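Please, structure for the following, as tokens.
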Amino acid sequence: MTDSLPIHGNYRGYYTKRPSFHDPRLALIPSNIFKDARILDIGCNEGWVTCEIAQQLQAKEVIGVDIDDGLIRAAWKRRRTVWSQRPRISSPSQPSPSDSGDEQKPKRSKRPRSSQGEEKTKNRTERGEQLYSFPAAFEHMFGPLPIPPAELPGERSQFPHNVVFRATDWLKEGTIDDWEGYDVVLALSISKWIHLNNGDEGLLSFFQRIFSVLRSDGIFILEPQGWETYHKAKRMDPGLKKIGDSLRLRPADFERELLKVGFRSVEHLGQTGKGGLHAHLLKALVYELYSSNRLPACFGSLPEMIVPLMKLKAVGG
């Protein structure tokens, strides 16, 4: 998909607008929910958040999906870049011939316990080890380092093998990965675009599909954009304006609608950023009241359900 206008929020260079290498929104989310989890990142854009979760937060598997195949190609490239630039540890240097065994070893200095821990992490070169990275200039000249195949079973759940990307209109088509279900589903900064492109019913269907692919005790993180941001977005395209003018649901209504779906409580995780980079996240706990209705998304939509920028936890079996 190569629309000249980003009517789905599919902005190029989106993450270059953010001042930090690490996405500040992730700091609002309890990191333990990602550990050993299977995660779906909807609207992953160029894959920065997806790769950060896969590499830094010990996720077992992360699937990033986006409607824009150009962004998905950029996400695969981002995966290789992160792999190339990750810090590596060089092997300890071999002892030189002058290092004889009968040479008196230096006495260990007595340090307070508090400083011993700092000494371990302060300078690896004392053990003949060095941290180094593949220079970014080399990647520019020669391309990123190749990713070796995963040869051992445990390597499949380690970066970069634990992250994949799919180009799909997830609301309408889903992905083959949905069959196994997810422990965590992320929908960061995309609810406005789904709302403007698909109307109130489309947004409700989106949350219904998310609910249907969440495992028991699953969590949904949603970042709803403010209603004031809709006005600028709908001026981008006549189709967006037509649908936007017909909308009755507001972001403030999402919490109520999600509770109708089965989410039993909503917790506001906080907010970060300013201006156009302002983010507001919520956490919602979900109780699985109607297990017979929790079918794979491919079987069709479920009863009404909704969520604001929040974390939804489905409890029950």
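The longest strand covers residues 214-223. The chain has nine helices and ten strands.
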